[in-house]
């Protein structure tokens, strides 16, 4: 099988630089003749987007990157051997049994990969400093390759087989980009031939309706093909069609693929995909906005502002110190090291994040001056803080994207902005982010709209439990490689941090491809005031009888984690994983429990009976209110990328882990857990929090309700799985509630309907309230006095969004 990640990384790594004169590093280009048409102008602009500008080919890192480009192109030229069913011996595209099975996916992928190689060769021909700039033999090889692929596989008489993506996006994008780069060397007949081939596989009907594979990022990719087909073939109607077909991408959606008002981004109907397909959409729109700007076909749809707003509404909440959080990258988390290039790291949370940074810089060129300045400040901050994987040294990023990031990093007029703090709930994709000074965390859940995980194309084969309450977190200047450093192929997939899971053995790709499997649950979501939150998940296990209620109360320096009603009849043990920390190849971090330093040997395990607190050196602390029985394990784990991705490297990797988990035993009937996560806390801070027994009050931790109160913060949070009374709160129906009482005598009451089913809800707070100072339209009645009684109308149409009420306390 061809390396499947090349399809999605292709756009990200062939991103664009700002348009402008090639003052430095002028690519080989003869210019536009006098009397050029508007199509010629667009072609020149696209060429500039592909090759970049404003960088010196003799300065690092560009010098080395250009030399690498030349080396790759030289290798492709040398190994090219046109044959009946291939252009390269290792990329046979002739499918003996053409259909749409996994084998055919491989053949179609190798066809697209052949075009990618030609595009790489064309870049080496056009860029300065590659050692092959203007090389006649390379030019001949490129033209020979284009004609060979047209004659043998990608032409108007060929029937499609394998993966639709290879035919409609992968191959035509690379083909058209190569045509732009080599345009002056192509005959009219060649251009006509290639355009006919593109028309066959990407007809106008490909964007006739906004459905199926023509939505979200895929729609942007298809529009790119149509627009470039129009540019290369001087067909104005194609350009206009591609431009107009972008419009359905812009508006917020309420279901299926696209951007949601709450900042969610979905692709493949059920998969949170901000970090992968979302990156493609962001980068693709940035390039298309730029190439069409100022032309007859400029994108003027006012709803494009939604895309600009999404930079901070959808993407920035998941970017931390330059990485993009894995819980919005779908099956891309399994794309680590390629089987065909074992020396190259193909993707990681950092490398995916860097592509998004470069795309934001490009998109900023079409935004307002205020937006542009702020985004460049955000990007500069992310560049400066990414100590683990410096963006300016990104090995997978080409000169174009690097030039954009270098321009921002070296711009003295840009002030680096700090990481934003606060809490964001994304109920439409069952995700949440909690960002505090010094650390950030993110939750991954699943419900009847959002899949447990996505597998497909032989990728992400063991991501089964990533939606079972996985709690990921990073420090400001530590542990930024936690999920980057071979985490996914070496971690125990049944013990992901934060999850509750049955030890029932699951088959690779269990549940079905493309996010097909979703739990039959409604109550997933929470309430937030933008700084703190109550978040909950009614969990049903994948292909399991497991049921559990899980809650997270996200506070200033800690996250309170509760689990209750845990039951299962799988005839295996059930576990809730408090932590599973990747300690790297050495694994030397100290582990302290109740003041005692535990052994640092591997393997090591111990049942910690009555444990009050634990601490992992260089990471953070864990508090178990009232004491708990927790199992601790130091484990040296080996795995291969090919274990979780069939196109991955077969080289064995080893990482050391320190795992804390609660063993609920065999077929539990009503198990529970309680713990605090304190990212970045010292041993002294962890011990002190454990000793301060009055800091946290557990109001409820049952199958019916879960709630806590932290008096010093004025915080009360309750997840009502069923109506009832918890502490001073009474709810008539299921809901999530979060209250913050402030020192100025006011309070904020946040309420949501995660189930999206309540047509009426009454919430009573047994607390004296003088007046209600603000309330949403969903509140139909508010009674104050010795207690506050809020009556909500129909909440079923609020999509789980928080309803915020402010009051003056009595």
Question: What are the SSEs and their pairings?
Answer:
Blueprint lengths: L4 H9 L24 H14 L10 H18 L22 H25 L9 H17 L11 H18 L6 H14 L14 H17 L3 H9 L13 E2 L5 E3 L3 E2 L4 H16 L12 H11 L3 E2 L2 E2 L24 H16 L4 H17 L13 H11 L12 E5 L4 E6 L2 E6 L25 E6 L11 H4 L9 E3 L21 E5 L4 E8 L6 E8 L4 E9 L5 E10 L8 E3 L2 E2 L6 E13 L3 E20 L1 H4 L8 E14 L4 E9 L3 H9 L5 E5 L3 E6 L4 E6 L3 E3 L2 E3 L3 E7 L4 E7 L8 E5 L3 E6 L4 E5 L4 E5 L10 E7 L1
Antiparallel strand pairs: 1-2, 2-3, 4-5, 6-7, 7-8, 8-9, 10-15, 11-12, 12-13, 13-14, 14-21, 15-20, 16-17, 16-18, 18-19, 19-20, 19-21, 22-23, 23-24, 24-27, 25-26, 26-29, 27-28, 28-33, 29-32, 30-33, 31-32
InterPro entries: Chondroitin_lyas, Gal_mutarotase_sf_dom, GH-type_carb-bd, Lyase_8, Lyase_8-like_C, Lyase_8_alpha_N, Lyase_8_C, Lyase_8_central_dom
Keywords: Lyase, Signal
GO molecular function: carbohydrate binding; carbon-oxygen lyase activity, acting on polysaccharides
